[in-house]
């Protein structure tokens, strides 16, 4: 497979802060012309007032904390021409605590941890009402950086009150089709307050972390291409694990992937193929296929009895999988092949499979290293040489 386009490095594609700063005028689920640029070439940069945007963040774990760091680091750049934005953290919560601020008195991006520690008990409905109230006057965005299946249940409330939703959480995109469609229906609503754009729903970080995978797919489809097949290594953690085997045991590789922040809060979500299956469903729906998780053929690397264990017990028992995995690796090496956990979405056939497969080391999937992701789009226009993207994920940072 030829790699036509190869992206590598840290800040690839639209990260969550980019999605926030880009605002509702860039291609997303939502009406495209809801918000026109306020930029006027006849005005000088100093004439343009800084626009305050309210941000609510649900989930301040690995990804949420990295987002807050990025917002703090970007604050000066965002305030300058042409963006002229000031992002004000007006609400922040974890599963236990929450802290509420206002546009006038936002939660500080430097000591938010201390504020959360002293915060009140989490009450997501109150959190939602607080943001919806602010949205009557200011452009307001809620960012879901949890892995919770409960939080997406609030997206419709947020959107119908004019709050834009940005999700790193895959639960909605790969969840019940009816709920997914109901949320997409909300993005065509106009805002009740004059001058504010109708709500949008953005979810670039749900697939490929910091890589512009969803926007690339949307671009291909919007410009009239036909996508036949999407395949690749969609998981940073499974990529890292299978790139580490040979020099380290399976159980150690899983622990290393977890300590580097590549895995889901419960690594079994990755090892069972569920996280990859979710990403495949999100891409399938983007291609207008009405697929759900039940339609995906999934090879799990976690035996059924280990699925019942508590997370800590599972990590204790993980070494039991070492010898079985070691046999599979040796068998692959005998054929001069390597193991890769891949997804294969056949759009034309409406079929999706995620599984551990053998690849030649010269194959684009076989030559990955670290926590590389690779996505190959086989399309009508790119039949001969597929469009692929490789992400080199940083080892010390979560990519958004
Ligand atoms: N790791 C990565 O590189 C990437 C991850 N993602 C996705 O980002 C999401 C977050 O991952 P990660 O940061 O690693 O997870 P963490 O477990 O580190 O953090 C999750 C956060 O969500 C909070 N939370 C959980 N349930 C609720 C709830 N009901 N209400 C409010 N807050 C809640 C947790 O609170 P508490 O602290 O109290 O437990 C915690 O702060 C996942 O959906 C993941 O798939 C997407 C792209 C890349
Ligand atoms: N657990 C995921 C993190 C991003 O979605 C992965 O391993 O890729």
UniProtKB/TrEMBL annotation:
SUPFAM superfamilies associated with the record: Glyceraldehyde-3-phosphate dehydrogenase-like, C-terminal domain, NAD(P)-binding Rossmann-fold domains
Entry EC no(s): 1.1.1.3
GO MF: homoserine dehydrogenase activity; NADP binding
Compositional bias segments (type: Basic and acidic residues): 35-45
Substrates-to-products reaction catalysed: L-homoserine + NADP(+) = L-aspartate 4-semialdehyde + NADPH + H(+)
Highest taxon of the lineage: Eukaryota
GO biological process: homoserine biosynthetic process; methionine biosynthetic process; threonine biosynthetic process
Any single Pfam family the record assigns to this protein: Homoserine_dh
Residue ranges annotated for the Homoserine dehydrogenase catalytic domain, each copy included: 212-384
Involved pathway(s): Amino-acid biosynthesis; L-methionine biosynthesis via de novo pathway; L-homoserine from L-aspartate: step 3/3; Amino-acid biosynthesis; L-threonine biosynthesis; L-threonine from L-aspartate: step 3/5
Residue span of region Disordered: 1-45
Cofactor(s) needed by this chain: a metal cation
Keywords: Amino-acid biosynthesis, Methionine biosynthesis, NADP, Oxidoreductase, Threonine biosynthesis
InterPro entries assigned: Asp/hSer_DH_NAD-bd, Bifunc_Aspkin/hSer_DH, HDH_cat, HDH_CS, NAD(P)-bd_dom_sf
Aspartate/homoserine dehydrogenase NAD-binding domain location: 59-179
Protein family according to the UniProt entry: Belongs to the homoserine dehydrogenase family.
PANTHER family: HOMOSERINE DEHYDROGENASE, PTHR43070
Protein name (record): Homoserine dehydrogenase
Protein species of origin: Symbiochloris irregularis
Organism lineage string: Eukaryota, Viridiplantae, Chlorophyta, core chlorophytes, Trebouxiophyceae
């Amino acid at each position: 497979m030829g790699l036509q386009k190869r992206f590598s490095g840290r800040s690839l594609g639209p990260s969550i802060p980019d999605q926030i700063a880009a605002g509702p005028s860039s291609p997303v689920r939502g009406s495209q012309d809801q918000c026109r640029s306020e930029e006027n070439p006849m005005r000088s940069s100093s004439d343009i007032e800084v626009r305050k945007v309210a941000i609510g963040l649900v989930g301040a774990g690995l990804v949420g904390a990295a987002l807050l760091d990025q917002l703090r680091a970007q604050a000066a750049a965002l305030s300058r021409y042409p963006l002229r934005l000031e992002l004000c953290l007006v609400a922040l919560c974890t599963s236990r605590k929450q802290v509420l601020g206002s546009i006038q008195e936002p939660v500080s991006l430097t000591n938010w941890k201390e504020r959360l520690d002293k915060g009140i008990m989490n009450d997501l409905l109150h959190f939602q009402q607080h943001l919806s109230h602010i949205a009557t006057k200011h452009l307001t965005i809620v960012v879901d950086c949890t892995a919770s299946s409960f939080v997406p249940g609030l997206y419709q409330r947020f959107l119908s009150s004019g709050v834009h939703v940005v999700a790193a959480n895959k639960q909605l995109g790969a969840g019940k089709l009816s709920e997914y469609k109901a949320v997409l229906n909300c993005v065509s609503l106009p805002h009740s307050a004059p001058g504010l754009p109708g709500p949008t729903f953005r979810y670039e970080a749900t697939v490929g972390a910091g890589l512009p995978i969803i926007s690339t797919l949307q671009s291909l489809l919007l410009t009239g291409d036909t996508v036949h097949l999407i395949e690749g290594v969609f998981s940073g953690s499974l990529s890292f694990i299978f790139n580490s085997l040979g020099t380290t045991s399976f159980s150690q590789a899983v622990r290393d992937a977890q300590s580097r922040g590549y895995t889901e809060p419960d690594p079994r979500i990755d090892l069972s193929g569920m996280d990859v299956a979710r990403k495949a469903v999100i891409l399938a729906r983007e291609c207008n296929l009405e697929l759900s998780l039940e339609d995906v053929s999934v090879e799990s690397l976690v035996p059924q009895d280990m699925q019942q264990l508590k997370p800590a017990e599972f990590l204790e028992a993980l070494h039991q999988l070492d010898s079985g995995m070691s046999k599979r690796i040796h068998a692959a090496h005998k054929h001069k092949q390597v193991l890769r956990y891949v997804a294969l979405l056949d759009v034309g056939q409406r079929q999706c499979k995620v599984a551990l497969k053998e690849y030649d080391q010269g194959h684009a999937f076989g030559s990955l290293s670290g926590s590389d992701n690779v996505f190959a789009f086989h399309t009508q226009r790119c039949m001969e040489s597929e469009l692929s993207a490789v992400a080199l994920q940083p080892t010390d940072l979560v990519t958004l």
